[in-house]
Amino acid sequence: MPRVDGKVCIVTGAASGIGAATRALLRDEGATVIGFDRNAAGQSDELLWTVDVSDQEAVSSAVARVAERYGRIDVLVNNAGIPGPKKPSHEVTLEEFEHVFGVNVRGTWLCTKYVVPHMLEAGRGSIVNMSSMYGLVGNSLIPTYHATKGAIRLLTKADAATYATRGVRVNSVHPGSIDTGSKTSVRADTSEAAQEYNRRTLASIPLGHRGEPIDIAYGVLYLASDESRYMTGSELVIDGGYTAI
Ligand code: NAI
Q1: Looking at ligand 1, which residue's alpha carbon is closest to its atom 33?
Q2: What Å distances lie between residue 101 and 50, 51, 82, 126, 192, CA to CA?
Q3: CB of 146 closer than 6 A to ligand 1?
Q4: I want to staple 207 with a disulfide (CB 3.0 to 4.6 A). Which of 146, 173, 239, 240 is the partner?
C-alpha cells in the first residue's frame, strides 16, 4: 500500500532541490501534491503553482484554492527557503535581514496560518517544517540564516504543543549539506570565504560526503505519513552525522 495514499499535500519551494524531490516522492507514494513556488512559471505542470510564500494575499488565496478544489489538506511541507546574506551580523542590512526572515520565517508561519484551520476542522494533519542542521548549531558566514532556521525549529515545537490535542502534528527536519545544484546556495558562491566554509563543512561530515535531495525527501515522507502518528514537536536530523561530533 502506498505510504501516503489519498492524502492531499502542499509542498512549498517545490520547483527545485529538496522540494522537487519531496513532491515527486509523495506523489509516487499515492498523494495528490500541489507545489507552491515563487519560480513556477515556465514549468508545464498544473500542480505547480506560482506562489510567493512571503506574500500573505498569495498564500491565503492559494491555500483556499487547494481546499476548495480537493476538499481537504492533510499535509503541509514548509520547505521554501533562501540562504540570505553571507556576511557577519554587523554588516547585514535591515532590508537583507527582513528579506531572509520574510521568506524563511514569515513564509513558514503564513502557510501554517492558512492551512491549520482546514486541518483543525478535519481533526487531522501533519505539518513538516524545513529547518536545517544550522537551526541546531552555529557556524560562520550566514548568521541570519541560522537565526531563521532556529526560529522555525521553535515555531515547530510551539505549534506542536498547541495543536496536539486536536489531531495536528508538527515536526521539523534538519538537513545537513545537500547537493541540490541551487545557484543561490553557499556552494555556488566562488568567493574565498564561501569556498573555505564549504571545505570546512565537508570535512566535518562523518559519512564523508554531502547528501542528496532524496535523502531528505524520505524523512519528510515518514513525517507526512501515518507511520509517524506518535511523533510531534520532534526534530529529524538528516545530516550525515555533522551534528553528532
Ligand atoms: P533550492 O534553492 O534548490 O530550492 C528552493 C526553492 O524554494 C526554489 O525552487 C525557490 O524558487 C523556492 N523559493 C524561494 N523563495 C521562495 C518564496 N518566497 N516563495 C516560494 N518559493 C520560494 O533550495 P534547497 O537546497 O532545495 O532548500 C530547500 C529547503 O531546505 C530550504 O528551506 C533550505 O534552507 C533547506 N536546507 C537546505 C540545505 C541544503 O544543503 N541544500 C541544508 C539545510 C536546509
Answers
A1: 81
A2: 20, 17, 9, 23, 26
A3: no
A4: 240
